[in-house]
Amino acid sequence: MIKNLQSRTKLNNGVEMPWFGLGVFKVEEGQELVNAVKTAILHGYRSIDTAAIYGNEVGVGQGIRKAMKEADIAREDLFITSKVWNSELGYEKTIAAYEESLTKLGLDYLDLYLIHWPVEGKYNEAWRALETLYKEGKVKAIGVSNFQIHHLENLMKDAEIKPMVNQVEYHPRLTQKELQMYCKEQSIQLEAWSPLMQGQLLDNVELQEIANKYGKSVAQIILRWDLQNGVITIPKSTKEHRITENANVFDFVLTEEDMKQIDSLNQNHRVGPDPDNFDF
Predict the structure, then answer these.
(1) What is the pLDDT of residues 181-221, one digit of tens each?
(2) pLDDT by residue (tens digit) across 61-108?
(3) Going by fewer Cβ within 10 Å, which terminus of the chain is more open, N or C?
(4) Where are the domains of the chain?
């Protein structure tokens, strides 16, 4: 049951991951970032998602430590994710990248480590590195990001360990039903990045009507839709009122009718790069 910010879902290896977390994409190093992470944790968030390419792992680590100290929260109660960047994909390089992320974050381990993008010809070797890190107990769970069905199939042909998570762009304009179904069949947990479509959906008229009905904001409606679809979500914000508002989605339930109406907004429209056609 998804009851509150601490509610978790069990990944296919038995590790429990919070349904809801804070994303820090495009938040630069500095006090604003440190405060955002600290604020989120003090307001009950337990999951923080970063990546090497964001260039902000140091500040994320500082925010985590400040919050743990102020609220007497144990490291085991938090769930921290980072991702290996494309230039570091390869067995040795990926292991080194993991260690570097840990150092920057100032942590002894990560809860989840992901391959950020499915770079053709490189992600299988990187996956072998993630399997090694996992087997050695250096990371609690491993997964991928931006993988389509064919990437996952290719990965799992040689993999010893199945990915536990696939983090993808997911919002009412990009519902990814086929991918979601496939991940469900394979017991791979789907996670949404850019759930609010980088703010582009916040003035959508249909969503506004649904929001009015529940006395909620459009953002809250979308985030609730994610959760009811069984998709972990990590909205990004640095402002305290937004961080708390985003998380205020546990006191109502969308009807099946409203869920379907939100689904019907799909246009297969991406705001981020296409995983089948990127050049970085």
Answers:
(1) 999 999 999 999 999 999 999 999 999 999 999 999 999 99
(2) 999 999 999 999 999 999 999 999 999 999 999 999 999 999 999 999
(3) N
(4) 8-200+232-237
**What does pTM read for this prediction?**
0.97
pLDDT at residue 67, as a whole number = 98
Cα–Cα distance for residue pair 61/188, rounded to 1 Å:
27
CA 20 centroid distance within chain: 8
Residue 23 makes CB contacts below 8 A (sequence gap 6+) with 49, 193, 234, 235, 236
Alpha-carbon gap, residue 132 to 208, rounded angstroms? 47
Catalytic residues: 54
Residue (of 238, 194, 243) closest to 33 by Cα position: 238
Q: Which residues does residue 141 pair with via DSSP β-bridges, in sequence order? A: 112
Q: Which two tokens stand for residue 149?
A: 């069905």
- Is the separation of the CB atoms in 195 and 202 below 8 Å? no
Asked if residues 94 and 123 have their Cβ atoms less than 8 Å apart, the reply is no
Burial 177-202 (b: 16+ CB within 10 A, else e): eebbebbeebebbbbbbbbbbeeebe
- Position 136 scores a pLDDT of 97
* Residue 208: CB atoms within 10 Å: 15
Q: What's the fold here for domain 8-200+232-237?
A: TIM Barrel (3.20.20)
Give the position of tokens 């290896």. 13
